[in-house]
Amino acid sequence: MAGAAIFGCAGPVLSPAEATFFRTADPWGFILFARNIESAAQVIRLTNELRAAVGRDAAILIDQEGGRVQRLRPPLARDWLPPLDQVRASPRDRAARGLYLRYRIIAAELRGLGIDANCAPVADIAGPGTHPFLRNRCLGETAAEVAAHARAVAEGLAGGGVVPVLKHAPGHGRAGTDSHKGLPRVAATRTELEATDFAPFAALADLPMAMTAHVVYPALDPERPATLSPVVIDLLRHRIGLSGLLLTDDISMGALSGSVAARSAAARAAGCDIVLHCNGDAAEMAAVADAAGTLEGAAAARADAALAARRAPPPVDMAALEAEFRAILPPA
Hints:
This protein has helices spanning 16-25, 40-54, 83-89, 95-111, 132-135, 143-159, 190-195, 198-203, 230-240, 260-270, 282-292, 297-308, 318-328; strands at residues 3-7, 27-32, 59-62, 64-66, 69-70, 117-118, 163-169, 209-212, 245-247, 275-277. With 332 residues, the protein is an alpha/beta fold. It has a single domain, classed as Glycoside hydrolase, family 3, N-terminal domain (TIM Barrel), CATH 3.20.20. Strands 9-8-7-6-3-2-1-10 form an 8-stranded parallel beta sheet. It has a two-stranded antiparallel sheet with strand order 4-5. A hairpin with a 2-residue loop joins strand 4 (64-66) and strand 5.
């Protein structure tokens, strides 16, 4: 059974020590960052070596939203406007189609490098209090707008053979703190949350993978952030209806306290299927691997279903897709 973790690695080349660790820890998947990327040939070699280390076709993720959160840059991938900026620059009746085309093109770029899962769409709603680290990464300012646009993003990725990862459940848009640095608390009532924040996640509850938010919602659980809260994870499953593989956001982020081992054990006990650890630190990864354990039962079935969603895309005329995209959003 695979380990219930996703790990990063330290640099653009997999070290012998990392390969040995991954062979033993057997994480379910891997995630790449800018530190891991130099050239197309190098990324392809790295993705092949990561999979060889665990002896199977493991999932390899990336955060390629476009805009500020874009690990691949030219010449390996196209540059994009921040998602919210693209939505605002598009004709209202063509915004969803523009997003579909954008992420269908991104999917082709990712698959060409051996990357088969993307941490998108962001289903958080941009509001007046949304922290700048997140705001222009959002897909709209109303629940209905975000749900429609997030569906277009997911379909574009899936159509290109890349598994979408819905984030940050049950909604990060009201948070005024950057969860990379501190722990946000959202003061909204449960009624307010259900009417707005939860709605895009419920509309996309069928997606094969989703990621939790490191945010405290006192109306749901006054002490624990969603990632570590059995109450919130139960709500994600049974009220919002998320049926796919549930990942934590990066377990090493500043929002959380305690050791990475304690965080990982708490996330798994709360009901998260997979612990995501991103920084590539060897000692932390060893601690996470021990604390996260292995995928079993329903979690293992959800993991298998997520892998099965990686379908080879049909042939497509990329030039035609790009021309259609430019017709919706001409170059500045």
